Amino acid sequence: MTGRSAFSPLPLDAPLPAGGFKTLVLLSHPRHIAAARRVEGALVVSTDWMVWQDLARADCPAVFIDQFLLDDFRPPADVYVRYGNWCRDLPPDLAEIAATFNRELEILLFGVDRLSHALESLCRRYPVERIVLLDARTEYGLLDDESKQIVVRDAARRHGAVFENQLDSPSRDDPYFPDELGYGRAPKTPPRFRSLIIRLACAIAEGITCLATARTVHRVLLFLNPMMEQGLIAHNRPGDTPVLIVGRSPKTPAFVLKCLRRGVRLGGLRAARSTALEIARVDAAITELRSRWRAVPPADVTDAVRRHYVENSVLGRGRLHAALAEFAALCLLLRRNRIVKVVVGDATNPTARLLSLAARREGAEVDELLNGMFVHDYVSDTRCAVEGQRPGVDRMLTWGRQQELWLRAIGSPLPCVRVGYPGLDPISVRGDHRPYGLPPVGSGNVLLLPIVPAGGNLRAIKSQAYPAIVAVARMLAGLGYGRIRLKLHPGYSPNYYHRLNAEFGLGLEIVEAGLVPDHLSWADLVIGPVDSGALVETLAFGRPYFALAPRPHSLVMDCIGPLCVYSDAEALGADLAAGRAPDREAILDHFCGGGWPGAASETFWRRTGASAEAED
């Protein structure tokens, strides 16, 4: 190993600094450290894991904000639903469209709740009289300057402390930070010439495939991940016409020819302008909402940040009008293509929400076939009957017994039809079909995925991913593994992980390109999070997958069946050393139903198509 390998990460349960600190200084970035250290007698509170590590090595009295979530931060299962309550102050039809912004509100407000809870715990532990704000970052940098002040000022007020604003906010996409997704931003538009070429290619692809499928009747719009769509269009039956949105699909001649051979239609979105009457109605609803908010103070700090975000990032930027226009365009797409069924992969996705609403408006059925792993105890309005409201979809198409147990655990009333996971079909074809099992201990290539928990893992602490990578990499090195590749997910900043690699001397190869299946031919075993679809994809390809979930977490253990979930690198290393591989057959059968691989796509059409057969 190279680099500063003598250092080990300071764990979250490390002893807290003793002493009667009366001043807290909040920061998020290395550029704040010098200013923080100039505040005499202060306890530095980092909202970034790596900065905390640096402060600890420099013998600066410091804590990490996540340390104050370990003991008693237990958000309720319906917390995400509560974040969307603001929509009730809009007319019902507009409220449904406004709910498309709830994904980013969930991320923002969950960060606010965590920050507020941690500050409360801090102020109870130390005799705080003054709080200095240099910065306080939450996930994806969604917390803007005003919101940071709202949260920290509220904590100071509740404990009779002076709030001192010295805010020095780095850019939300500063390359230092570990996440870089663009929630709350306008989508990037390609250069004008490239945009013209794309529109022309879309028009040609749409025209050719629509002409070829002009006489078909049972048209099913698929809004799924590319691997599922690939499997489903390869196995559709006569009488069923898969429809893909052309802007989301490849426009290559080879793909268009494949669509023609398989009877696939590519449908294009047409811009649909709102009428003056519709615009006036939305404007009136916004005016009424603002009037209500002026009349009634925010219920708490979370509500105050929610109102601020909605006002500045949704209403003030015309995004509600834009969502209404997108909804109209989706209705037009379904009407023009005479869609009878829509299948979405994640009904909480903003576009999928609008698509589901459009389907109901146009009289089409809405099924959900989950894009990934769902193993956590949290409630969503799209799958559950929240406050007596109808769920956002009509039916769940489940992979297998695991998802059915999960739906029961969260109280979903939706009927289920088991079809398997079509995303495995193209993956299983690519596998080299060598005997399943582990190579000799210490030999072979290891593919490591960041142990970053999914958003539904409400109790999890995301910063646990970094010490988990260090612990797993060192465990593997101790067993003799010399080739370890860390594959980053889109939206993760490579700079942060390169810094982690160098700081702790891990010797990892870090890659961003491709999907996980693109790396499975190289890998001999995979270690990753429990809530990633890579788990079943890896097993279907023929490689062992070891699932890791550091505690605390919100796993519904009763629904994961034969899957062994490791909470630390030590237990995982013991099984590697003993040559114990996960039970591939049992896990895939539990999660993805029987008959894999190659059967899910056929089962999908057999059980949901024009001539649907009863489930076995």
Mean pLDDT: 92
* Physical arrangement of strands within the biggest beta sheet: 8-7-6-9-10-11-12
Count of beta strands: 18
- What is the C-alpha radius of gyration, as a whole number of Å? 25 Å
Structural class: alpha/beta
Describe this structure in words.
This protein has 616 residues and is an alpha/beta fold. Helices cover 40% and strands 12% of the residues. It has 21 helices and 18 strands. A seven-stranded parallel β-sheet has the order 8-7-6-9-10-11-12, sandwiched between helices. Strands 15-14-13-16-17-18 form a six-stranded parallel β-sheet, sandwiched between helices. Helix 5 packs antiparallel against helix 11.
Keywords:
616 residues; alpha/beta; six-stranded parallel beta sheet; 21 helices; 18 strands; 12% strand
Structure summarized in a few sentences:
The chain has 616 residues and is α/β, with parallel strands linked by helices. 40% of the residues lie in helices and 12% in strands. It has helices spanning 33-37, 49-57, 79-83, 92-98, 102-125, 145-158, 192-212, 226-234, 253-262, 276-295, 301-315, 319-336, 350-361, 401-409, 424-430, 465-478, 494-503, 534-541, 569-578, 584-592, 600-608; strands spanning 23-27, 42-46, 62-64, 130-133, 162-165, 218-223, 240-245, 265-267, 339-344, 365-368, 395-398, 416-418, 445-448, 483-487, 509-511, 525-529, 545-548, 565-566.
